[in-house]
Amino acid sequence: MSESSSVVEVCVAGTGSYVPERILTNGELAKMVDTSDEWIVTRTGIRERRIAADDEFTSHMSTKAALRALEQAGMTAGEIELIVVATITPDTPTPATACHVQHQLGASNAVAFDISAACSGFLYAMKICKRLISDGAFNNALIIGAEKLSTVTNWEDRSTCVLFGDGAGAAVLRKAGPGEGSIVATEMGTDGNLTHLLEIPGGGSACPITAQNAGQHLHTLNMQGKEVFKIAVNRMKEAAEKVIERAGWRAEDIACVIPHQANLRIIDAIADRLAVPNERVFVNLDKYGNTSAAAVAIALDEANRTGAFKRGDHIVLVVFGAGLTWAAAAIRW
Ligand SMILES: CC(C)(COP(=O)(O)OP(=O)(O)OC[C@H]1O[C@@H](n2cnc3c(N)ncnc32)[C@H](O)[C@@H]1OP(=O)(O)O)[C@@H](O)C(=O)NCCC(=O)NCCS
Questions:
Q1: Half-sphere exposure of 326 (CA within 13 A, CB side)
Q2: How far does the centroid of ligand 1 lie from the alpha carbon of residue 306, in Å?
Q3: Which residues of the chain have pLDDT under 50?
Q4: Whose C-alpha lies nearest to ligand 1, atom 4?
Q5: Residue identifier of the C-alpha nearest atom 9 of ligand 1
Q6: Triad 96, 100, 101: Cα angle to 5°
């Protein structure tokens, strides 16, 4: 789905992120399932991931990331008009995690809701909120990608448990003033024919968890990794190319590509196909693994805070996830 250029420019005014304290290393995982640090690092690039405490929910991580984004934007929670949380691990099926975040922040003037687009959720939220701001419905929005994937991980399945982690990332979007940055182009897509490749089969209305099926790991992530891998590379490349073209940029104009953090081999393949040198591609999956909707949001915040790009630079975000879903954004910072 593409867009025409909008009259009102929307900028990213601040970013923030939060990861839980507890680090789970590949070495520890090798004591839980039949795997090794060498296999995990070679096949995925992941060295460790964060695991939230039992009493630390998706909303709590969201709120911590949001406070940092608000601080950087120089805004108070009371000024926020819209809160959108992208997550597949909400605190509760209902109400939305965004409602819990609104409460925890004291953002009493905000409308709040969640969206479910798996790893693509943060950029889905960015596009939706950019439009709602540029159309004049809201002056600003707090978008959050947050997950407690440790609660939907099958810790007995070595093919998936080595991949995932917990965390949250946030960004404040608002109408841009003169000379400020702009979300120049966005792109998103879905292929619902491929829902079966990456799913949590149980826990919803199709397959409620019952006393009879409780031990079957139906509430955990199930993935056909090889198939997902190939499609992810192609779809992310195409989505990134579309926003780069629509922004009128060339590969050499891009200061930083921030891809979904799922697998280093996927990231390398995309960088190669986009002809962007590896040093301009931001990677932090070695520290956090795949945190689904949170991954690109945490990466954006870390890239921002570590000076991977500066005001006026051209950056490209690109993601892929269950659905199957994908999305990209071209941002002039
Ligand atoms: C999951 C993934 C890392 C697996 O890597 P792969 O190279 O495709 O590995 P395969 O699934 O083909 O498995 C290769 C072998 O390693 C084994 N293996 C799987 N997980 C393992 C682990 N953690 N440790 C050791 N061996 C493992 C498999 O059993 C298989 O063994 P076999 O050849 O004897 O059958 C990779 O497919 C991937 O990253 N896919 C995309 C995931 C993704 O991006 N998801 C994000 C969307 S959000």
A1: 22
A2: 32
A3: 2, 4-6
A4: 225
A5: 226
A6: 105
Confirm or reject: Cβ of 119 under 6 Å from ligand 1.
yes
Determine the 3-state secondary structure of 40 from DSSP. Answer: helix
Q: Which residues are annotated as catalytic?
A: 119, 260, 290
pLDDT at 154: 97
pLDDT of 148-192, one tens digit each?
999 999 999 999 999 999 999 999 999 999 989 999 999 999 999
Distance CA 115, CA 329 (A): 18
Give me the residues paired with residue 174 across strands: 11, 140
* Distance (Å) from CA 40 to ligand 1 centroid: 9
Note the maximum CA span of the chain.
Answer: 61
Q: Is the CB of 266 under 6 A from ligand 1?
A: yes
CB of 294 sitting under 6 A from ligand 1: no
Whole-angstrom Cα distance, residue 65 to residue 72? 11
Q: How many whole angstroms separate alpha carbon 240 and alpha carbon 233? A: 11
pLDDT at 237: 97
Q: Which atom of ligand 1 is nearest to the CA of 228?
A: 41
Question: How high is the pLDDT of residue 7?
Answer: 72
Binding site membership of 228 for ligand 1 (Cβ less than 6 Å): yes
The 3-state DSSP class for residue 235 equals: helix
Q: How far is CA 247 from the centre of its chain?
A: 22
**46 pocket-lining for ligand 1 (C-beta < 6 Å):** no
Output the pLDDT for position 2. 46
Distance (Å) of CA 245 to CA 6, 34, 102, 186, 251: 16, 45, 37, 11, 10
Ligand 1 atom closest to residue 36's alpha carbon, by position in its atom list: 24
pLDDT in the model for residue 6? 47
CB distance 319 to ligand 1 below 6 Å? no
Global pTM reads 0.96
Write out the E strands in 210-310. Answer: 222-223, 254-259
Q: What are the structural domains of the chain?
A: 10-180 (3.40.47.10), 183-332 (3.40.47.10)
